[in-house]
Write a structure and sequence with these properties.
The structure holds two protein chains of two kinds. By secondary structure, chain A is mainly α. In chain A, 74% of the residues lie in helices and 0% in strands. In chain B, helix 3 packs across helix 9 and helix 9 runs antiparallel to helix 12. The chains are: A mainly alpha, B mainly alpha.
């Protein structure tokens, strides 16, 4: 009787603590969002989207940084997504059971969680040192390399959900595998593939470390891909660490914009994939 | 004739497509090899000069051109351990809550909320840690730790010195928040895979719900749990921007967790742009190589465990 009571008490305490743990997790998310909203919204004004990043001690906006981030993220996706799509296709279709696929799958999963700063060093040596200067294109390549594993993983997962009978049906009508894949399998998995692209965009749009050594930063407007280009993450880094109040305010606005963008994308990706009937595991 | 021409074209399209998918898959491997070779090439000058003393040396002095990675290595490992100590119990609690007690309708919103923590960019954690968390630690938590834990024997050494707000402890805390969603997500998945028959058998023997979690589900899923924890560790070791904000960037080893220090990734991020001289740059590449080897070993171990588990369930199903 006594042990039964003790076990019941332990049971209650343990579950109470697991509720507390969940509370802590959710409270942290709320705390971060609250800080961003309260500090970012106050400084958010129209001029943020119309003016360039200011010099120390003067006011301005984030226009060039927002533009640079959009350009480099878009280019990064253009580099990373097609290659990731093809590699994922190999894993799910042509090489489904091959030994090569097992190795590629494993290495790709490792790259999903590998530190992004190392990609920055890699691209620095590959492009920046060879070209002799920092450039937006180097930044885009670095982002593309980071986006790729996300795309590989989601592509494979999503293609695996397409029933084999659809492929068999197509093959029975005389279609070659490439035709089956591009005309039957891709359309059937298009929501899932879109989820992959969105997750990849979400993953790279907040990346900072690899851009420090590749795109660097630029206080002025630049649309030249061969030159250093401003981007939100490095501007946030530089401005937040500075002693100037104006800069710090802009850093909070930038952080708010990036976070809202990324959370929005993650939620969209999640709802698409749940409509599609599959739980995508982002960024893991 | 027209048919055979068409068939030939089809066959060509087929081989082009197949080869390009295979080439892309090989590119994944080539990239990893490229990264490794680049890092070795970049760090060669420094490694040639310092040999093993690069890892064991404590001095990091750009003026004298002497570089030893012991301090950043110590910082990386210490902050990651702090992060695990904090994040693992919380993740476990959340995973238990989500799989055992959470009402079905609440499950999806709560797990989405926790997973959103994973998509917040790391730079945002950095600025939040510096401007919100660090002042709180400096004014309330750290003085309390110094006063109450500082005088204790052995453990006390960890909590001494002035409360800076930034330092190893703060970095570890921020890392804990960042890796929490990853560990939680893996734990939740493996807990959910525990066979119902085992759990029911335990209930039949009179086990409480907690007995089932602790004595049946957890032992059954320990491979996955360890895999998830290692995955979190891999993340913590390599995290850069958030740590750079709150670590304090001091090349100094001190026993106290409250002291500013540096980590491998923070040192690279901070010093790379201003590194003058080939040896300095090379030493930073060598830090990158060290980080690569460290994280690769941990993450590969984690993936290996999780992959074995995945294959096991497929066979069982």
């Amino acid at each position: 009787m006594n042990t039964l009571r003790r076990r019941r008490i332990v049971n209650i305490i343990a579950f109470a603590m697991s509720m507390v743990a969940t509370g802590i997790g959710l409270a942290l998310l709320c705390a971060i969002l609250w800080t961003l909203l309260s500090r970012g919204l106050g400084a958010l004004s129209f001029s943020v989207f119309t003016q360039m990043t200011p010099g120390p001690g003067s006011s301005g906006g984030l226009l060039n940084a927002i533009f640079g981030s959009l350009v480099m993220t878009a280019l990064g996706i253009l580099i990373g997504a097609p290659i990731g799509l093809l590699a994922g296709t190999y894993l799910a279709e042509y090489g489904r059971n091959s030994r090569l696929s097992t190795v590629v799958r494993f290495i790709n999963d490792v790259q999903l969680s590998a530190p992004s700063i190392i990609v920055g060093l890699f691209v620095y040596m590959l492009l920046v040192m060879r070209m002799g200067h920092f450039s937006a294109i180097a930044g885009a390549v670095a982002l593309g390399i980071i986006a790729m594993p996300v795309m590989v993983r989601t592509t494979e997962d999503m293609l695996n959900l397409v029933p084999k009978s659809m492929r068999d049906g197509s093959a029975a009508l005389g279609a070659q595998p490439w035709y089956t894949i591009t005309r039957i399998v891709y359309p059937a998995a298009k929501n899932g593939l879109l989820t992959g692209v969105l997750l990849a965009v979400a993953r790279i749009s907040g990346e900072t470390a690899p851009l420090l050594f590749t795109a660097l930063n630029n206080q002025f407007w630049s649309s030249n891909l061969n030159k250093p280009m401003a981007n939100l993450p490095t501007v946030i880094f530089q401005f937040a660490m500075s002693p100037y109040a104006d800069w710090q305010r802009l850093a909070w606005v930038g952080a708010l914009l990036i976070t809202l963008f990324v959370l929005f994308l993650s939620i969209i990706a999640r709802s698409i994939s749940s409509l599609f009937g599959q739980h995508a595991n982002p960024g893991e | 004739m027209a048919l055979s021409a068409r068939l030939r074209r089809e066959a060509r399209a087929e081989s082009v497509f197949r080869i390009s998918t295979m080439a892309s898959a090989l590119l994944v491997l080539a990239l990893l090899a490229g990264v490794l070779l680049t890092l070795i090439y970049g760090s060669w000058p420094a490694l040639k000069v310092f040999k093993w003393s690069f890892v064991t040396g404590e001095r990091w002095n750009p003026v004298a051109d002497v570089y030893g990675a012991l301090t950043p290595l110590y910082g990386t490992i210490t902050t990651s351990i702090i992060a695990l100590v904090i994040a693992v119990p919380i993740s476990f609690g959340i995973a238990v809550f989500l799989t055992e007690i959470c009402p079905r309708w609440l499950r999806s919103p709560i797990s989405t909320g926790i997973e959103l923590l994973a998509s917040v960019p790391s730079i945002v954690y950095g600025i939040w840690g510096l401007f919100v968390l660090a002042p709180i630690l400096q004014h309330s938590v750290q003085p309390w730790l110094i006063e109450h834990l500082g005088p204790l024997p052995v453990v006390g050494a960890l909590f001494q010195g002035p409360p800076y707000g930034i330092g190893l402890l703060t970095a570890g805390l921020v890392l804990a928040i960042m890796i929490l969603p990853f560990i939680t997500s893996v734990m939740r998945e493996v807990f959910r895979m525990a066979p119902l028959s085992l759990k029911e058998a335990a209930y039949g023997l009179g086990a409480t719900q907690w007995n089932v979690v602790w004595d049946v589900v957890l032992p059954w899923s320990r491979t996955g749990v360890i895999g998830g924890i290692m995955l979190g560790l891999g993340r913590a070791l390599g995290e850069t921007m958030a740590v750079t904000f709150v670590i304090g960037n001091a090349h100094r080893i001190s026993a106290s967790l409250l002291a500013p220090s540096t980590t491998i990734s923070a040192a690279v991020a901070n010093e790379f742009a201003e590194a003058v001289g080939d040896l300095y740059t090379s030493a930073l590449f060598a830090l990158g190589l060290l980080l690569f080897v460290l994280t690769f070993a941990v993450i590969a171990g984690a993936r290996f465990l999780l992959m074995r588990l995945e294959r096991g369930t497929v066979q069982r199903a």
